[in-house]
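Shall we go through a protein fold together, starting from nothing but its sequence? Label the sequence line and the structure token line clearly, so we can match residues to local backbone shapes. Would you write everything just below, so we can both look at the same thing?
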Amino acid sequence: MKAILITYSAKGLSKTESSKLSKALIGYLDSSNNAKYTYKRKGLVTSVNNIIVSKSTFIVPRNKIQRLISYIESRGAKVLSWDIDIPRKYFKG
């Protein structure tokens, strides 16, 4: 399956902006009522078939790529991407 390996660097961003970007892409756990309830909030990457390699590196199918790259660049981070072939069985979803 044709896919794209994406990695981004938030080096020029503040810690707050870097955290917001990571949460928007990967998602996060949210708790309420003194941690009585826990919710898993999905991010842009977790809402599509994906392979999360690390916090700032992931593999997504080629047809879902433009939205992710444009979002990362709009937040001020630097993006690198490579075309790869990977078997479909490794994708979640």
